[in-house]
Specification:
The protein contains seven helices and 14 strands. With 262 residues, it is α/β, with parallel strands linked by helices. The longest helix has 29 residues. The radius of gyration is 20 Å and the shape is globular.
Length: 262
């Protein structure tokens, strides 16, 4: 029976993410040296790359030391993006009392920390580890973001449970989404042998779009900038900029104004 290298355990991965938080947010989690993070990062990258190489021997070998150093150089950018994500939540949720509350309590921060780290590793060509990282966030928060998705700055997620963002999704700056939102594929392309082809199949969401809860946006469609998409919708066609989309026949309850009387 073929033996595989030991992959990252949940406990080891959680420690790696904690050390990343210490480097990115020392004022909250305490300061550690970059070398402590680097040493652990090398171990995680090496284990994932070795396992992947065992399963797919034709994959070109990756210099784990170079990849780790390249990732470390990206940490300031990752930190800036995460701070913009925190600001997006604080500016869109009146229940938030401070950025510290978002960092300590909100699943959006945990999900975006894992995603921002995983996406950087994915862009460096590191196999397997990015998926392990985002799936850990998925299990903790219920928010499923593929590391290959492209998400701009100031991305806000409120509540978050059940959010799904597919691999080829492209999301602009200042986008806000709510629980249960899916950015998914409508169908899958196949080659002449019937094998699925990895082609762009998820939505493009332009800048400053809000998508409310339990809405599915499916296929390679474009949601125009500054649009508001209501809840419980099924969107499979392009939406022009500055649109307001809601159910065509909303139900009106006489006597219920802005939630009063419920």
């Amino acid at each position: 029976m073929q033996q595989y290298p030991i992959l990252t355990s949940n406990a080891e991965l959680d420690l790696l993410m904690h050390r990343l938080k210490c480097v990115l947010f020392p004022e909250v989690f305490g300061r550690i040296s970059d070398s402590d993070l680097y040493d652990q990062l090398i171990c995680h990258i090496g284990a994932a790359v070795a396992a992947w190489q065992n399963v797919t021997p034709s994959t070109p070998r990756l210099d784990t030391d170079v990849a780790a150093r390249q990732f470390m150089a990206l940490l300031p950018t990752i930190g800036e993006l995460l701070r913009s994500d925190i600001d997006a939540v604080t500016s869109n949720d009146p229940a938030v009392t401070s950025s510290l509350e978002v960092i300590a309590c909100y699943p959006a921060f945990t999900a975006m920390l894992h995603y921002r780290v995983a996406h950087a590793l994915h862009e460096l060509g590191i196999s397997l580890l990015p998926r392990i990282i985002t799936e850990r966030a998925h299990s903790i928060t219920g928010i499923d973001i593929h590391p290959a998705a492209q998400i701009g700055a100031a991305f806000g997620i409120d509540h978050g449970t059940g959010v799904v963002i597919g691999a080829t999704s492209i999301i602009g700056t200042g986008v806000m989404i709510y629980q249960g939102v899916t950015l998914g594929a409508k169908h899958f392309s196949r080659d002449a042998n019937g094998n699925m082809v990895d082609t762009p199949r998820h939505p493009i969401v332009e800048d400053h779009v809000t998508i409310y809860s339990n809405t599915s946006v499916l296929g390679r469609i474009r949601i125009g900038h500054d649009s508001v998409i209501g809840g419980n919708l099924w969107i499979t066609h392009d939406v022009p900029p500055h649109s307001h989309v809601r159910q065509s026949q909303p139900i009106h309850h006489i006597g219920f104004i802005d939630g009063e009387g419920i």
